[in-house]
Predict the structure.
Amino acid sequence: MPSVCFLTLAWISDKLVPRRHDMVTATKSFINRAGFIPIQCPSCNCVKKVPCERIGQNKRSIKVKCTCGEVFITEIELRRNYRKQTKLVGELKQILPTGKHVSTCKIKNLSLQGTGFQLFNAPIPSLDDTVLISFHLDNKKYSYIEKKAKVTYVQKETGFVGVEFIDYFNGTQDKDMYYFLKA
Ligand SMILES: [Zn+2]
């Protein structure tokens, strides 16, 4: 008989797992590309996919109760290559032979490592070009993100461009993006 499992998200904390929970098993769960978090019970090994939306923004760990009776804490983490589909408006700054050029673009996907965006009637950058991409996240803070990036993918016919961020660790930007991607 297949085991049916219902996990209850019993309690949600935005803090790191406190020391006093050392007696409780702690696991790590990762958000997958489809926006689900497969949470596995460390006791009976059953897995329940929880949609990201059920975990509030900024929540880092959740207490889970499994139908087998096991209560455990799992830390929600984001894989670095997790890519979120977005519809943000962005701005691309390029240095062209004719001078600086600023174009509007549509940020179609975003990860901690890079982004893919759509240009409209704008000069398409070449592979390995360094560009500056900026946009606001549609989070509560409307966080401003500005990243230096290297062009890694170009589709001339459609104006779709993929870039990899060069400057990773600049303070609150990456933190805001992390939580934006996690939400
Ligand atoms: Zn279980």
About this structure: Residues 84-182 form a domain with the Thrombin, subunit H fold (CATH 2.40.10.220). Helices lie at 172-182. DSSP finds one helix and twelve strands in the chain.
